[in-house]
Amino acid sequence: MKIGLGVIGINPTNMGSTVTLLQDVPALKYELRGICAKRGDILKKYAQQIDVDYWTTDYKELVKREDIDVVAIYSPDHLHAEHCVAAIQAGKHVICTKPMVTDLDDAKRLVELVRENEIKFLIGQTMRFDLQFLTMRRFFEDGDLGEIMASEAYYAHDLREVYKMTPWRLKVPQNLMFGGVVHPVDILRSFSGDVEEVHAYGAKGKLTPEFPQMNNFFLNLKFKNGQISRAMGLYDIVHPPMPMMQVTLYGTKGTIISDFTDNEEGKVKIVFDKMAAKHPLEMTCPSETDTSVYGHGQTVIRYMQHFQQCLDQDLEPSPNVVDGAKSVAVGIAAWESILTGQPVKVFNDF
């Protein structure tokens, strides 16, 4: 039986377009039955191009359709809350690209609505579903690293080309504490649990003067279990000769590091406690065939597979609405820390 899929926030040059790859995966049961975006002229042509009969500029109309079971939300960050609320109240299961929202009150409301309406809710955190990070998780879950003592993650991305494809990021503007730093924060939370306290610094880069906010960040994190960590998000920089994303876990049995660069081979390196550091075990994850706009097509396919399994077997998606809320709460605390210059406790009572 097909799963009726509707998408809010889709055009040929944004993340929403990745759902068009789903039809090429035999194991997936999704059928794209409706799309929604602000620009009707562009949307009509795109609907014809991808052979979708129903399109609308009114998201409230899309979520009402009885033939749609799951609503995927790829709209600009500041619109996620209202789009998610509408979909949940219409009884639809929801997939929302990161960040879930950009406000703590909105995060609390979504958690409450998901529980009240008993729907499935997945945060589309692509970083969790990249091959090298999935490989890292296997080592972690198998106990090969022992107990994690410290960790670090970064996401460095020169966004100047991205602004050309998605000018809303400049006009709104996008809050990059949520639209960017949420990536390393979420992946670190997936290994270490709840963040208890944040001490952060932020600065405005000098390459994009028209962007009015801070867009380079360093966060020091203390987890409830005692672990310490560091998250870096740099978005107004000349991209350095290093991967776009990287995660390192320092365990009692070994240290592992993995990285990611769009459409290139990912590397996973691990050094065990009794192995000479000059002879680390290195694994190369194959490059992924990916024709999507941002190079995230294969990771989207993986999280859509995961969500389908959750629907079929009545499982809880991961990352779920609470994970999304707790990552947002870290960002809220980080902003407070930047403004006050002090460490700030993180709200985790969802």
Describe the model.
The protein is an alpha/beta fold. The chain has two domains: 3-125 and 298-320, NAD(P)-binding Rossmann-like Domain (Rossmann fold, 3-Layer(aba) Sandwich), CATH 3.40.50; 128-289 and 327-345, Dihydrodipicolinate Reductase, domain 2, CATH 3.30.360.10. It has eleven helices and 15 strands. It has helices spanning 40-49, 59-64, 80-89, 104-117, 131-141, 160-165, 168-171, 176-179, 182-192, 297-313, 321-340, and strands at residues 3-8, 30-36, 55-56, 70-73, 93-97, 121-124, 148-156, 195-203, 216-223, 228-234, 245-251, 254-260, 266-272, 281-285, 344-345. It has a nine-stranded mixed β-sheet with strand order 14-13-12-11-7-10-9-8-15. α3 packs parallel to α4 (104-117). The model has no long low-confidence stretch (mean pLDDT 92).
